[in-house]
Design goal:
Radius of gyration of chain A: 19 Å
Strand content of chain A: 25-35%
Largest sheet of chain A: 8 strands, mixed
Shape of chain A: globular
Oligomer: heterodimer
Shape of chain B: elongated
Strand content of chain B: 25-35%
Number of helices of chain A: 5
Number of strands of chain A: 14
Number of domains of chain B: 3
Helix content of chain B: 10-25%
Number of helices of chain B: 5
Structural class of chain B: alpha+beta
Number of domains of chain A: 2
Distance between the termini of chain B: 41 Å
CATH superfamily of the largest domain in chain A: Cyclophilin-like
Distance between the termini of chain A: 32 Å
CATH architecture of the largest domain in chain A: Beta Barrel
Order of helices and strands of chain A: EEHEEHEHHEEEEEEEEHE
Strand order of the largest sheet of chain A: 12-9-10-7-6-13-5-14
Chain lengths: 240, 352
């Protein structure tokens, strides 16, 4: 698809690389993001990567749409999609019914056992397409096709922090207690956002994630270590 | 000794804000920052601060602050009632849009904000607080920012960078800032093509009003529903302050500073940057309408606004009280050196 520029007022525009949520389109988004970050044109405030587009935010007092779009077009001409591969994380998750209250209903709707849902969810390596919704909330895909299910018709008012959830072909871990419409299938004891860490947000767009099933004892052990400040999330980084 | 403003009563919703936390939206971190950046910039100018220094954003009803410092210079900009209680003196009202010099033990009562959603208080030298991700803006939903990312609380102590006031007299803005009237100006898009012709025409002609659900995240607008061509949903993409998204019910939501970084509803238009301070000042029940301009026009309007703001800042002058002499200014400026030079002081006050 042709690249499209769409206008978000006089402080930003989107560079759209397509309509679909797929790795190839997202790779082009991330490549432009990386390039503009490495060599920011004058007046650039920041760029925000999403599934299929990059939001380019600029200071309209320091520059203007024409200059900024020209700079972005120049960056596009020079950008190759080969960006550095993101980090690989192994996130523990406990797929217990009380920690994943939608596990049974989801399994039922899909015609699978709860064990099979957990097994399928843990079988894939996920790509962090983007962060949004709340600080540290990663939109990760792609979920195995067997687990595809639209969002809940009745969103929950309170989803506990750490909830591991699925919707459509995506999965996530809620970094905060918040409202949410995804199906909750388990919980991760490691906070995806922790103000006490040097980098409070664990995941970055472009990272990869594998979920590793842990039992209740292991879940509780990690949760206690986190609470005591004795857990270094660097140990979740896997050699890729 | 350290210098503080101590929160004697927290008021209803006062937060520390600067001009926003940029650079972390890729992590899902909202920008936050002052809803009315023009007012914050002017408040800072009145106390001699750089324009982007963090101040107090005050909504609804302000806090009561005690000066636990040798002295401090403050200024408020916006429709805010204020008064000063000083040991041994009758309480007296303080005007916004000028600076005031407060002494140790003074009680500064910030009252109701009436006529806009927010007003600002700046202190000379600023607050000695540690920035979070490069900013002192407060994002309450996730508890990010100074004071643990929450509004002012009882007995909070706001540490001051300077203990004592800068040289020179108190100063004033000749008049409050002007925000303009008429429709809020927007640039259509980024997804105006997801709406019917009729919806676009309605959006640009109908009157809306701000519903009850209005906060730093955004304003739910109520008025004629806007019909999408097909679905209201798009693959989530980036949002800006001023984005007007329209969910399936057709009622627009004008996003403000605490907006999420990305969203999946089609956005019909974006409020231009020069009108964001006006948008940030809106309150439930306020009426508004929209007028489309081009990006070129929006840039020209913003340039003119920046010139106007620079003009207001240049016009800041020593306080000239109505119907009397400002004793504080006189003591500070003239009596110490033993002369009262009315002519060279530029004052048109009668000699007394």
């Amino acid at each position: 698809m042709e690249i499209r520029f769409t206008t978000a007022g006089d402080t930003a525009f989107n560079v759209e690389f397509g309509e679909a949520i797929d790795r190839a389109t997202n790779a082009r988004v991330m490549a432009l993001h990386a390039r503009l970050k490495a060599e920011p044109p004058p007046g650039l405030v920041e760029t925000v990567p999403t599934f299929r587009s990059l939001l380019v935010v600029y200071d309209p007092v320091a520059t203007g749409r024409r200059e900024m779009q020209a700079a972005v077009e120049a960056a596009l001409a020079g950008s190759d999609a080969a960006t550095a591969e993101g980090r690989l994380w192994r996130l523990p998750v406990c797929y217990a019914p009380d920690l994943g209250p939608d596990l049974a209903e989801l399994a039922n709707g899909l015609g699978l056992t709860t064990e099979r849902v957990a097994e399928l969810h843990g079988s894939a390596e996920y790509f962090v397409y983007m962060l949004g919704f709340m600080p540290g909330f990663g939109y990760m895909g792609d979920l195995p096709a067997e687990l595809e299910r639209p969002r809940r018709t009745e969103p929950r008012v309170r989803v506990p922090a750490g909830s591991v959830a699925v919707a459509g072909r995506l999965t996530t871990v809620y970094p905060w207690e918040s409202p949410g419409g995804w199906h909750l299938i388990g919980r991760c004891p490691v906070p995806l956002y922790d103000a006490g860490r040097a980098d409070p947000v664990l995941l970055a767009a472009g990272d990869r994630v594998r979920f590793e099933a842990v039992d209740r004892a292991a879940f509780d052990g990690i949760a206690q270590a986190v609470a005591a400040g004795r857990f270094d999330p660097a140990c979740l980084r896997a050699a890729s | 000794m350290s210098a503080f403003l101590t929160v004697v009563r927290p008021g209803l919703f006062a937060t520390i804000q600067d001009l926003g936390r940029f650079g972390f939206q890729e992590l899902g971190m909202p920008v936050a920052g002052a809803l009315d950046p023009v007012a914050l910039r002017l408040a800072n100018a009145l106390v001699g601060n750089p324009p982007g220094m963090a101040g107090l954003e005050i909504a609804l009803l302000g806090p009561v602050l005690r000066v636990d410092a040798a002295s401090v210079r403050i200024a408020a900009v916006g429709p805010l009632a204020m008064s000063l209680e000083r040991e041994g003196e009758a309480a007296r009202p303080l005007e916004p849009h000028r600076s005031h010099t407060l002494r140790q033990g003074d009680l500064l009562r910030l009252g109701a904000v009436d006529g806009a959603s927010v007003a600002y208080l700046a202190v000379a030298g600023g607050f000695a607080l540690a920035p979070v991700m490069g900013s002192l803006s407060t994002y309450v939903r996730a508890g990010i920012g100074p004071l643990g990312g929450r509004p002012l609380g009882q007995d909070d102590r706001l540490p001051l960078v300077r203990d004592g006031v800068p040289d020179g007299p108190d100063v004033e803005l000749p008049q409050p800032p002007e925000y303009g009237i008429g429709p809020l100006r927007v640039v259509l898009g980024p997804q105006d093509d997801r709406f019917t012709e009729q919806a676009l025409a309605t959006f640009l002609s109908a009157a809306y009003h701000v519903g009850k659900q209005a906060d730093r995240m955004g304003l739910r607008l109520e008025g004629p529903a806007l019909k999408h061509r097909g679905s209201a949903d798009i693959p989530s993409d980036g949002l800006v302050t001023g984005s007007i998204q329209v969910p399936g019910n057709g009622q627009p939501i004008l996003l403000l500073n605490d907006h999420q970084t990305a969203g999946g509803y089609a956005k019909i238009a974006t409020v231009i940057s020069a009108d964001l301070p006006r948008a940030g000042r809106l309150r439930p029940g306020d009426r508004l309408s929209f007028q489309a301009v081009t990006v070129d026009e929006a840039e020209a309007i913003r340039r003119r606004q920046e010139q106007a703001i620079s003009g207001w800042i240049r016009a800041i002058r020593p306080v000239r009280p109505a119907g009397g002499i400002d004793l504080e200014a006189l003591y500070a400026e003239n009596l110490i050196s033993g002369t009262v030079d009315i002519v060279n002081g530029g004052s048109d006050l009668p000699l007394v």
